[in-house]
Amino acid sequence: MKNHIFKRPCTRMLALLPVAYALAGCATFSQEGGFNSVEQTTQARIGKDLKWARTDADRDAIDQRVTELLAKPLSVDDAVQIALLNNQGLQAAFYELGISEADLVQAGRLPNPHFSMLRARHGDEFKIEQAFTFNVFSLITMPQAVAIEQRRFEQVQRVISMQTLSLAAETRKAYYAAIAAEQTLAYMGQVRRAAEAGAELGRRMAQVGNWSKLQQAREQGFYADAALNLARADQAQIAAREKLTRLLGLWGERAQFKLPQRLPDLPKSADDLPNVEQIAMDQRLDVQAAKLETEALAKNLGLTRATRFINVLEFGPARVQEGLRSEPYKRGYEVSLELPLFDWGTAKVAKAEALYMQAVYRAAETAINARSEVREAYRGYRSGFDIAMHYRDEIVPLRKRISEENQLRYNGMIIGVFELLADARAQIASVNSYIEALRDFWIAQADLEMTLMGKPSRRAVPRTAMAGAEASAGH
Fold first, then answer.
1. pLDDT tens-digit readout, 325-346
2. What's the Cα-to-Cα distance from 46 to each of 6, 63, 81, 415, rounded to whole Å?
3. 2-114+141-312+344-473 carries CATH number 1.20.1600.10
4. Which residues contact 198 (CB under 8 A, 6 or more apart)?
5. 3-class SS of residue 43
6. For the stretch 273-285, what's the b/e string if a residue is b when 16 or more beta carbons lie within 10 angstroms of its beta carbon?
7. What DSSP string runs through 183-244?
8. Of 9, 22, 53, 461, which is least surrounded by CB within 10 A?
């Protein structure tokens, strides 16, 4: 009678095995590894191509495209495209997608079944116990674990998209800074040459007794300052170009890429964005990622509360032989259950609740910071436009008129050559200030565009959701 009682439940549980393995078989890797979402986001936001270099063919295609873009002076769009294809740090970040997808696939697979055996002998008598069990609780919690990991996978896609867009914005800023640094270096060279001419003329005037030592020292001081500013401009130009080179992922001969000789002209008007905060709330990927993290942890909290008392539940067929070796096996099933005698799961639930509330406040912080950042960026953009336009329309033309008038006075011998040289230095300085203002405007525009899309988080991609699910399911 006892054998028959064991047999019926065992048969029922064995009937669940095909269902369990069918569910586990659905957990497979995708062909594109979640990269399509990042690629589509990049194309929609900034209109640039992405390629994940997973094969030699992919790397060859990237290399060929980069070579084509480097064949001519780089535009800002070309520079961004090279960075998105060739930056090694971004390629490394893409593999976070593979890591996250592996976690997702693992969450959809049952743990391997367990086989246990006990064999004891006393003379001619034997005792043999054999059991084949699998984790039933993993089957029960699998849908929740998969849902949690699916949300995390989507969050990783958004984080990688943010890193991609951030690289594009940083490349734009470095591009404008590099061109401005080269222009500044050229103008500082002109200032130094004018100061050098003044210093040499002053030295000769002092030699023939037409100048005092004070006047000569003043011109020599102008020259010394100009030489120092030129050295600083040269170092700034090297640093700006090397930063752009790093973002482009270039080295060797490719690092000798060509840039345009001057910055793009100021646009006719600045963009008017009265609802800039709402645009940020609708579009920013970091706000969306924070919401996803909060939802995933809320789901995990529900799973943790449901499984706080049961960590391991294993069930499977078993057979036992006692007595002589010729005796038949007694068949039945074995159940393994962890009893909550010492750990009632309260610490696990408290941890899940703390993680959830932490995510809630971080999401609120992200939204508040996003509004402030976009306001600041927009004001910086408008201010940068106004300053650059003031230099272009007021200061530079005014300095030019002054220079023309001084030239006429010099031709009429009303002023001397030193006044003319001093005016030339002042005019060059005003042009250089306009270059800096124009550079700052284009950088402010890149900052505004990035702020509207989001800001990469300094925190690593959270793995707490799956960690909690694994603890609950006993994986």
1. 566 665 665 555 555 555 456 7
2. 65, 22, 10, 55
3. yes
4. 219, 222, 223, 417, 418, 421, 422
5. helix
6. beebeeebeeebb
7. HHHHHHHHHHHHHHHHHHHHHHHHHTTSS-HHHHHHHHHHHHHHHHHHHHHHHHHHHHHHHH
8. 22
